[in-house]
Write a structure and sequence with these properties.
Elements: H1 6-19, H2 27-34, H3 38-50, E1 54-57, E2 63-66, H4 75-82, H5 96-120, H6 125-143
Antiparallel strand pairs: 1-2
Helix pairs in contact: 1-3, 1-4, 1-6, 2-3, 4-5
Amino acid sequence: MAVNTRFATGVHAMVLLAAEPDTLQTSETIAGRLETNPVVVRRVFSLLHHAGLVDSHKGPSGGSKLARPAKQITLADIYKALDTGDLFHTAEFASEEAAHTASALHQVFKNIERSLRDELSKTTLSQIAKKATRKAAKADGKKHK
């Protein structure tokens, strides 16, 4: 089963944009800092741009930046922009017994996804960026001792 890392990549990229909110950053720069392919970042930025979370400008002096302050962007906004469908899928079995189990399981999955979205809506990009900065500062302090 393939793991979708689009949401995590999107959050990481958005944190980097939040660190320099007035600076246009290229997908190459962001990709280099995330140690991933610029195409991955461009695909994520395209979806975020379409959702109104990122402003992107093409051309030699182009790049991307947050479309609004990080305090106004929740993880739920990012998740919705990068959503690739249901988190969980039930298997399709032919028996009637399996259909009843699948139906019950489907309801559990819907409840989990609702809870996930509710939890993501409580956290802003700004909060994640601040936590990341504190952890980085703490790690730097340990390196210099």
